[in-house]
Amino acid sequence: MKSKTIGLALGGGGAKGLAHIGVLKTFLRAGFKIDYLAGTSMGSLVGGLYAATEDIDFIERTFLDIAENYSFHRKHLRGKKNLLFTDEETVEKMLSQKIDGLDVKNTRIPFKAIATDVKDGDEVVIDKGSLVKAIRASSALPIAFPPVEIDGRLLMDGGFVNPVPVDIVKKMGAECVIGVDVSSKWPDIEDEHFSLSGIKSTIVDAFSALEYQVAKEKVKDADFMLHPPVLSFHWDDFRNAKDIIQVGVNEATNSIREIRERTHYPKPVKKPLQSFIDFISGNDL
Questions:
Q1: Torsion of CA 91, 204, 200, 246, to 10 degrees
Q2: Predicted TM-score of the model (pTM)
Q3: I want to staple 115 with a disulfide (CB 3.0 to 4.6 A). Which of 150, 155, 250, 270 is the partner?
Q4: Residue 105, SS3?
Q5: Cα-only R_g, the chain
Q6: 41 is annotated as an active-site residue
Q7: Residue 138 or residue 76, greater confidence
Q8: Which residues make beta-bridge pairs with 224?
Q9: Alpha-carbon gap, residue 182 to 185, rounded angstroms
């Protein structure tokens, strides 16, 4: 029986979106081919980079290097317009060797980034033009990151309109749509850490609540929804990249068997020694 095409819809969430790397790693190790990708905010960064390079090891190494060599603390936001895309501490600079000058429509895997029009709040699906600008626009959370102009429109974070773009991936043609939600939640006002003090903290909590409400409707058409338990991490906890990626690995591993059955993907052919090691380690996907 022919395997179904697989599409991933990757949600936003700042550093929590590094769980997408773990999800992708696990799916690839299980032998799944990703046929379509769409992402919002951090999901557009991870998804766009993978769509362009098909090199998940490079993406993981890059963020682990960032975690090791940079201190992404909340105080670093002070006086900076954009944490991820500055001239000094920059993901854009480190990754430009792979994606600089690349057009969204020319990625190896069909990819779309989701952004919000600042003027009217409309959803904007970016499927052409500079991949770097598309990622920046999709990730432009107000207060922290400035909006990005594309084709005469000022664009900001896509989480306001489509936190986990399941419907976009379905329209792209995927027969099996898998959504990965790492951010949307309803804030617990009884939590001792919840506070109405601190403007940025309050805005992030409000944004998460908005994503929660929007995502509830948007993800109904997903064949599978993954919810890596990363909500205990803060949105700028890039220093914890290794732990967050591992959470994504764990979440995806728990779903492999069911996804394989639904998509009719055979297990990858492995050498006897590797099969034995995977069996002993419990990683026999």
A1: -40
A2: 0.84
A3: 155
A4: helix
A5: 18
A6: yes
A7: 138
A8: 178
A9: 9
Would residue 146 be called left, alpha or beta, if left means φ above 0 and alpha means ψ between -120 and 50 degrees? beta
Q: How far apart are CA 14 and CA 44, in angstroms?
A: 11
Catalytic residue chosen out of the listed positions 44, 130, 138, 157: 157
- What is the residue type of 42? M
Q: State the DSSP code for 31.
A: T
Q: Is 67 in contact with 241 (CB distance < 8 Å)?
A: yes
Structure tokens at 88: 């000094």
Identify residue 221 by its one-letter amino acid code. D
| Calpha distance 281→285 (Å, rounded) | 11
Active site residue 117: no
d(CA 50, CA 27): 13
Q: Regarding predicted confidence, which is higher, 93 or 71?
A: 93
Once rounded to an integer, what is the mean pLDDT over residues 204-212?
Answer: 59
How crowded is the C-beta side of 261, counted as CA atoms within 13 Å?
A: 4
Give the distance, in angstroms, between the CA of residue 269 and the centroid of all CA atoms in the same chain: 29
The encoded tokens of residue 198 equal 């601190």
**Strand, coil or helix: what is 27?**
helix
What is the SS3 string spanning 250-274? HHHHCCHHHHHHHHCCCCCCCCHHH
DSSP assignment string, 188-221: -TTSTT--S-SHHHHHHHHHHHHHHHHHHHHGGG
Q: Kindly name the residue from 35, 41, 130, 181 that is annotated as catalytic.
A: 41
Q: Which residues, 6 or more positions from 180, have their beta carbon under 8 angstroms from its beta carbon?
A: 8, 9, 10, 11, 19, 20, 23, 43, 164, 225, 226, 228, 248
Three-state secondary-structure class, residue 246: helix
Report pLDDT digits (tens) over 47-77. Answer: 999 999 999 999 999 889 888 775 544 444 4
